[in-house]
Structures are given as C-alpha cells and as structure tokens.
Amino acid sequence: MRLPLLALLARGPAHGYELKQDLEQLLGSAYPQPNVGQIYVTLGRLEKSGLIEGEDVEQSSRPNKKVYHLTDAGREALHAWFEDTADEPRVRDEFFMKLALAPQSGATDQITLINKQRRQYLNTMRELSRLAAAEDRDNRIAHLLIEGAMLHLQADLDWLERCQEELEELE
Fold first, then answer.
1. What is the mean pLDDT of the chain?
2. Which of 23, 68, 69, 147 has CA atoms 20 to 30 A from the CA of 5?
3. What is the rounded CA–CA span in Å between residue 16 and residue 69?
4. DSSP string for residues in 64-124
5. Is-contact 126 146, C-beta < 8 A?
6. Residue 39 has pLDDT above 80, yes or no
7. Phi and psi dihedrals of 42, rounded to 5?
8. Phi/psi at 14 (nearest 5 deg)?
9. Helix (H) or strand (E) holding 57
C-alpha cells in the first residue's frame, strides 16, 4: 500500500479518504479494497519515514483534516519503484507444496487435490466474469486488472491439467 499511495500523492496533495476513493475508482471492484484505517496507518508510517509530510487543514463545518504531500525522498522512492521490475516467480506455490507432499503424508490423493483446486479456479473465474460485467465499461484499468487475473487463472488451469497428466502416467 505504501508505494501506490506515493504514486497517488505524486499528482498533488490529498487526504486519506480521498486517496482511498481514488484507489477504489481507479482499480474497480475486482481489486481488494483497502479500509480507510489501513490508509491512515500507512500514511502515518510514510510520514515517520520522511517520504511524505502532513499538514493540518482547518475546515469550518467539520473537524480539521490532514493533507499529505510527497517529499523529495518520497519522489525518489516512487521513481525507484517504477524503475524496478516485478519478478515474482511462483516457485514457492502453496498448492504445489501440498501436491508434492500429499503422497508422503497419506492425508489426501493428488488427483483429489488437483480437482479441488480446479473447481476453485473455475469459481474464481466465474466471479471475475461477473465483476467484469458489472464494472463500468469506461474503467479500462479495472478491466485490464480483471483480464490479467483471468489469464493467470487460465494458465493455472492449464498447469493443473499438465500435473494431472503427469501424475496419471506415473500410476
């Protein structure tokens, strides 16, 4: 949450609730929505680390609000984040660990595990399809997020099929 908040603050000062609304509007309903408490805790940490500064702004009919802006250190951190590539290979996949250990544990059958995981992926794809249909057609970012998740799920389904074929050959 730290770096996405810095990215939103790069366009100009904002308060926590504004940042939450901006994230929700940008990413749509498919992305897990942060709660406002999480936003404010993260803003506090960013301020303590010197990446942002907060300023109390008086409001006539409401309590004061704190508006945050990036510091030079925050801009540097944001720039470094955008420069860094995302390299997250899934070699530490929890499902695969279960699949590998099932025969040694005797707790379950590998094909049963594969079928259960396949059902989960298909249910998730159906839910994402419903979200895509309900999402505002003009929110291309949200649609790209959903499409990416569905493509990953399809690759996972293909991989499950491959695992099942390999394991059935061993029997």
1. 89
2. 147
3. 11
4. -EEEEEE-HHHHHHHHHHHHS------TT-HHHHHHHHHHHH-SS-HHHHHHHHHHHHHHH
5. no
6. yes
7. -65, -40
8. -160, 160
9. strand 52-57
Residue 169 CB coordination number (10 Å): 7
Q: What is the mean pLDDT of residues 63-91?
A: 86
What radius of gyration do the chain's Cα atoms show?
A: 22
pLDDT for residue 89 is more than 80: no
Task: Give Cβ neighbours of residue 65 (< 8 Å, ≥ 6 apart).
Answer: 15, 56, 57, 59
CB 13 within 8 A of CB 67: yes
Q: What is the pTM of this model?
A: 0.71
The CA distance from 110 to 113, in Å, is: 5
In Å, how far are 31, 59, 77, 87, 151 from 148, measured between CA atoms? 12, 42, 26, 16, 5
End-to-end distance of the chain based on CA atoms, in angstroms? 46
- Tens of pLDDT, residue by residue over 101-120, are 888 777 888 999 999 999 99
